[in-house]
Amino acid sequence: MSKQVAIVDTGGANIASLRFALERLGTDTLLTTEINELQAASHVVLPGVGAAMDAMQRLDELDLIEPIKKLEQPVLGICLGMQLLATFSEEQGARCLGITPDRTEQLMPSPEETVPHMGWNQLNRIDDDPLLRDISVDDYFYFVHSYAIPVGDSTVASCRYTRDFAAVIRKDNFTGTQFHPERSSTAGAQLLSNFLELD
């Protein structure tokens, strides 16, 4: 069965690089806000660049909140898209999808590290999860964010920048990465390939 990835059109940028990364792996992509197209896709990606409140308002206006929560195929939230899987975000006090019990919190700068967290960083903990097959703590991923989910029960990989935070989360068929796999070279391509193998 051929795979088609439906990318939820949340109104953010960087969609072209995401589509290119997925299509390089031999899959078709579709940018959509149509419920029936999301339901029919083999995999769904919830991207995100911007603010949590704005993204949630867009999903609400498109009547996509409940349909997304009910998706049964593999779903991957990227960056803000991962944070939208949580219950609440400190960014603008946004109520999110509530798929995981997490709360997104603002990263606070330290004497050595400024916010936003922007650039390459390694994971410092990786659990056994099919999304992380052939990925190790030696691999680097590309991050751009000022908010993060604290390490918790849904965390399957973590990273450290000013403090430990969730780099990858999972709740049933919903997964999320705080980093941008489409901008993370070989390691990012491996993660996207792993995602496409989920069923």
Task: Give the gist of this structure.
The protein has 6 helices and 13 strands.
Compute the gyration radius: what is it?
15 Å
Helix content: 10-25%
Uncertain runs: none
Could you tell me how far the N terminus lies from the C terminus, measured between alpha carbons in angstroms?
11 Å
Q: Estimate the global geometry from the Cα principal axes.
A: globular
What profile does the largest beta sheet have?
A: 9 strands, mixed
Arrangement of strands in the largest sheet = 2-1-3-4-13-12-11-8-9
The helix-and-strand class reads alpha/beta
Sketch the topology as an H/E string, one letter per element.
EHEHEHHEHEEEEEEEEEH
What is the arithmetic mean of pLDDT? 95
Query: Care to count the β-strands?
Result: 13
* Portion in strands: 25-35%
Number of helical stretches of at least 4 residues = 6
Care to describe what's here?
- The structure is a single chain.
- With 199 residues, the chain is of the alpha/beta class.
- Helix content is 25%, strand content 32%.
- It contains six helices and 13 strands.
- The strands form two sheets. Strands 2-1-3-4-13-12-11-8-9 form a nine-stranded mixed beta sheet. Strands 6-5-7-10 form a four-stranded mixed beta sheet, with helices on one face.
- The longest helix has 13 residues, at 185-197.
- It is globular, with a radius of gyration of 15 Å.
